[in-house]
Write a structure and sequence with these properties.
723 residues; eleven-stranded mixed β-sheet
Length: 723
Amino acid sequence: MSKPLFSYRKFWAECFGTAPELPMSRAEMDALGWDSCDIIIVTGDAYVDHPSFGMAVIGRLLEAQGFRVGIIAQPDWTSTADFEALGAPNLFFGVAAGNMDSMINRYTADKKRRNDDAYTPGNTGDKRPDRAVIVYSQRLREAYRQVPLVIGSIEASLRRIAHYDYWSDTVRRSILLDSRADMLLYGNAERAIVELAHRLAAGESIHAIRDVRGTAFVRKRVPDGWRVIDSTSIDAVGPVTAPINPYIDTATAACATKGSEPEIVEPIRLIGDMAGKSAEQKSEQKVGEDAQAVIRIPAYEQVRSDPALYAHASRVLHKETNPHNARPLVQAHGDRELWLNAPPIPLETDELDQVFELPYTRLPHSVYGDARIVAYEMIRHSVNIMRGCFGGCTFCSITEHEGRIIQNRSEDSIIREIEQIRDTSPAFTGVISDLGGPTANMWRLACDSREVEAKCRKLSCVFPGICKNLNTDQTPLVKLYRRARGVAGVKKVLIASGLRYDLAVRSPEYVEELVTHHVGGYLKIAPEHTEDGPLSKMMKPGIGAYEQFKAMFEKYSRAAGKKQYLIPYFIAAHPGTTDKDMMHLALWLKGNKYRADQVQTFYPSPMATATAMYHSGKNPLKRVTHKSDSMPTVKGLSQRRLHKAFLRYHDPDNWPVLREALKKMGRADLIGNGSNHLVPARQPAKHHPVVTANTSSPDSRPFATQHNGVVNVPGRRKRTTRR
C-alpha cells in the first residue's frame, strides 16, 4: 500500500500560505516574502494555472505539501540566464518538456517543422528547443551543477528506456543518461514527486533514494539480494524449460477472452540464486511471490543493433505495466545499469479529487497579458473526470504514460468544478466543452475482481474482445451526464473526448443520452481502419462495431429530431497496413460518402508498441524471435504519400498517383467515371496536380462540412496525455 498522498506532515514553509499564482520572477518571490524556492519547475509550455497543465498540477500539489514552488516557463535555452532567474532551489529542479513530447510538438509526421505551438502565447513555434528535457537539463547543469535534477513529463516518461527515435531514425539511449539527471519520474508522478520532496527535505541524498515507485535512475550494478530474470536473448538453442516468464499472463484462466491467443513460454534464463535449481523448484516459484526479482531486458547496445531484440524489449516492458504485479526492469547502457522501479500505484478517488480541487486560478499567468494560448482556450471550460485507458491501442501513448487502471474522480468533485467554471470564468457562455479524459466513456469501469486485476498482464481489456471480467455498466456515467446538464447556468455539456464505441453499444441508454443531449452536431469517433490486418496491429475492434454504433447514433438522432453526423477518423501508413488495405478503406469511404479534408498519418511516438513494429518489422503482440514472421511497414516517402492519397481519393491532386498504383495492383477496373469507380480516368480541365498528396498536418483542428449528403471528414491532433 502506498502512503496517502495528502497524509504527509507539511513542510515548514507552509506558513507562507497559498500563492495567488506560482512565481515566475524574483519580484513575485519578493512579494510573497520568499528568499528562495524549495523546488523550481522548468517547463516547455507557457505556465497556465489549470489542472490540464502538468506544471500547474505538480506545482500546486507540492505547494499543498508546504513547499515553495517556482516556475520557469519556456526559458531561452541559448544561455543559462533564464535558468538562473529564480536562483537555486533548496531541494531540486524538476524539468518537463510540457504536455507533449517536444519533437511531436515541433514536427509533423512528415518531419516538417511546424510554425505554430498551441502551448505558446501567440501560437508561435520558436519558444522551445528540440528534445527540450535534454537541453533544459544541460543548461541547469551548467548553472547549478550540485543541485539535484529530476526529469519528468510525457517526454521523459516515454523515453525512459532505450527507444526508437523517429526523427533521427536511430535507437537512442535512455533520456536519463542523455540529460545527466539524477532521477526520472514516469507516468502521472504525484506519488513519486511528493515522496521524493519530503525525503529530500528530511535530509536524504537523492542518490540514496532507490525504492520509490515510478522512478528510474542509474546505478553501477544490480545490488546483492536481487534475483535477475535474464530476458536478453530470444532464440533458444536446444530444449527449453519453463521458468518464471516475464510474458506470462498470471490470470490466464480468469481473464481469458474468447478468441484470445494463449501465451507461449519464452526462452528465459535465470541467474542469481535460481541458477542451479531444478525445473521443479523453478516452477514452484510463482510470479509475484518474490519481491526481489528484477527482469534484465536487452542492453542498449543490443537493441540499437538488433531490431528483433528491440521488439522483444518493448514486449517485456509492456507486460510489466500493471502496478499490482510488475517487476523492476534493468537495462545495461555500457558499464552502467538503467533501473526502472515498478509503476506507481494509481490514485484513489479522494486523492484525485483533491488534486483537481487545488487552488488553481484556471488562467494563464498574468505575465502573458492578453496573449492567446490556443491549448488553454481549447480546454478552459472542459472537465477531466478520469485518467488512464485500458484500450491498449498500439499507436497511442496514453497507456504507457497513465496506465491501464482507470482512476476516477467522484461525481460531487466533477460537479463542483463545473460550478467553479460557471462562477469564475468571465468567458463562460454556459457550454462545458468536454466531460471526459483520455477516453470519454471509461469512467468507473474496472475489473470485477480485484484479485484478477492484481494478477492480469493483458495488454488490453477490450481486444480482441471485451474481457468477461470487465464491468461495462455505463449507468453511473449516464447519471453524471444528467446531473451535469442540470447544473444551474449550464446550457449544454458536450462530449469531445475519444469514445470507445465497442463499449458504448452495450448500453443503449448511454448512447441515447449522449446523442440526445451531448453532441454539438458532429461527434468524433475513431474506427482508424476498416481492414482486419491493420486493425489487429492497432488492437482496435472491427468495423462491425462502428457500424453498430452508427446505426444507434442515427436512430437516436432521428428520435431527438436532430441532424447530427459522425466524424470518423482513420490512420494512413500504420504498421501492418498494405496498399490493398488502403484501397479497400478508400472504397469504404466512397461507399459511405465520406471525404477526408485532412488525414492522419501514423506518427511513431517513443515507446509505443506500433513504433516497435515500425522499427523492427516484427509484431511484439506475439512472441518475438529472429525467425518470426515479418510484417509490412510503411516507411518510404512515396508509399506514405500513396496511403494518404487513398484517404483523400476525391482530391484531383491525388488522382495521378492513385491511377498509377491501381494499375500496378491489377485494379485498373477502379479507374473510370462511374459510381463504382474510385478515381476518374482523366484530370479535370485546367487542373495541375501537385507532386505530393494534398494533405494537411495530422494535428490540425477538426472541422467538418456537408454538401449534398457527403460528409467531409477532418483530421485531428491525437489527444495527448498530461504531464
